[in-house]
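User: Some background: our group keeps a shared notebook of sequences we're curious about, and every so often someone picks one and asks for a predicted structure to add to the entry. Today it's my turn. The entry only has the sequence so far, pasted here. Could you supply the structure so I can complete it?
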Amino acid sequence: MADFSGYIAADELYDGPYCVLSIVDNRRFTRLIYEVLDHNPREEDITKFFTRFHTALKARDLSLNGITTDGSPLYPTPISQVFGAIPHQICQFHVVAEINKAVLKAVAKVRRQLKATLPKFSRGRPAAANRRQAARKKRLEQKITDLFDNRHLFVQHHLTPTERSTLQRITRGRTELRILRQIVDEIYRLFDRRCRTDTALAKLATLRRRVRRCKVVGQTLKKLFAPTLEKALIFLDDSLLPATSNAVERGNRRHRKMQKTIYRVRTGRHIRWRIAVDMLRDAQANGRSQTAHTLHCARAG
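Assistant: Of course. Here's the predicted structure to add to the notebook entry:
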């Protein structure tokens, strides 16, 4: 912890019957402390874990400037009890992912509605009187296919001119879909670091009033009114506070990859050993890079 940045990310990883609590330096991407539980974590476990880390900070005369977690309800109370009034950032990625999931569900609902309006015919070639209905059915089927194949355009952050043209084409006649995309654009603008938290909260309040007035999408975007969205904007007032908990999430993904090959023989003791070896590897990373650089220079002459 000699090069501790002052910003951490905390998360829990469920590994079979065990749960691994981790705290990672959110700017240097190094694991600082961990604990393996044999049960699902409770607020008491999180409080003890944070108290242990807080004691380690005090012993080294270090201070904590900010903490980033996901939207789990396990963290707010222990954080206020152990660390006091410090900036608590909710991971931007988790918040936006929940809203995007609701948007994709709304697009799927429109596809189901279009599918229910398809005219039905008996098997075989349609009669002359039904050819107009057959052409309409073909157009609707193509529209349903286009909405499915290009559903990512409704939640994608940046769109090229070609993608925007495609989005305009597939949403022709569906006002609610175009409103959804406009709201998604406004949500992404909330996380622009060029503005402050107060400005972003004012924009969010205006967006929420607009969604309430729009009955077409009001029920779809309930996640827009979640309190976690407001806590995901705290990073705008601190240029050093990361907006996401990617540091700890990356460590969890690496742990799952290592555990994948020995799923049937894992125990709590082996999990502790494996994380300890992983932390030792991180601690020796600078030495390994220097050794590799020296060997390359020696080979090059």
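Suggested note for the entry: The first helix runs from residue 43 to 59. The chain is about 55% helix and 10% strand.
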